Amino acid sequence: MSQRAAIAGNYQGKIEKISDPTRMSGLLQRAMESRVLLAVSAPNSTEAYNSALLDVRPERGYLELDEFKPKPEPSQKLDKLHVSTRLNGVEISFVTRVESVGERDGIALYRVRYPTSLNYLQRRSHYRARVGFARTIPVTLYLEGGQSIVGHLRDISVGGIGASFPLDLPDSVADSRFAQDCSIALPTGETIKCLIEVCFINHSLQEDNARIVGARFVRLGPQELGTVARFVCAVDREGMKHRQRHK
């Protein structure tokens, strides 16, 4: 693989299927609170509609959607729906069915089934440098109650990190509604102190008894941003030298 192709691969997005109730609820709540625009389509219709989330009720098994624009024709029976939106640069989509159509203050409201899963696609806009397993770079997450958990850096960009952590991660780590305090102790002696937002958690394919946590930086300061950018360049240069030696 060429260097250009390898870099291009780091920019590609990856679709993740989310079925964890806590993460689903957190993402849908944020979409509702942010009033993001929903794109709605139906298999039996050529029309595309816009809507918004008005209510998220996982405990009752439904979502409530705002009136559709343009307004569906009276003869148009909407049943199965495909719903998608973008939230903080991430594309979220799901399939649902209409349970009932009501009205409030003269405005149509759609009650739909709570989805069983969400498709989550984050398109990377920054080159991500991979950290070899031979290098140990501690990543510490600071949890509520003064607790902390330590993992190891696996990749990094100016947009976020991937790190491996023990399997017994606290449930609070997966709650994507809240940014979490984090520090990364670089081998240069510098420490990056930042807020991160967890995007996904997967089982590690390379490490037994470990999970990979993918997260984005939240409001990274200018000094920390510069430190991350320099470290990404340094790791990339080392990787290029390693590849050239082993050609």
Q: How would you describe what is shown here?
A:
Strands 1, 2, 3, 4, 5, 6, 7, 8 and 9 form a nine-stranded antiparallel sheet that branches. This protein has a six-stranded antiparallel beta barrel with strand order 11-12-13-16-15-14. The protein has two domains: 14-122, Roll (Pnp Oxidase, Chain A), CATH 2.30.110; 129-245, Beta Barrel (Thrombin, subunit H), CATH 2.40.10.220. It is 19% helix and 44% strand. The protein has helices at 3-11, 21-33, 222-245; strands at residues 14-18, 38-41, 48-51, 53-57, 62-65, 80-87, 90-104, 107-113, 118-122, 129-130, 138-142, 148-156, 160-166, 180-185, 191-203, 210-218. It is α+β, with helices and mostly antiparallel strands and 247 residues long.
Based on the structure given, which CATH architecture of the largest domain is correct? Beta Barrel
CATH fold descriptor of the largest domain: Thrombin, subunit H
Radius of gyration: 21 Å
- CATH top level assignment of the largest domain: Mainly Beta
Helix-residue proportion: 10-25%
Order of helices and strands: HEHEEEEEEEEEEEEEEEH
Low-confidence stretches: 1-12
Beta-strand segment tally:
16
Please outline the major beta sheet: 9 strands, antiparallel
By CATH, the superfamily of the largest domain comes out as predicted glycosyltransferase like domains
- Shape descriptor reads elongated
Number of helices: 3
Structural class: alpha+beta
What is the beta-strand fraction? Answer: 35-45%
Mean pLDDT: 82
Q: Number of folding domains?
A: 2
Q: For the terminal residues, how far apart are their CA atoms?
A: 11 Å
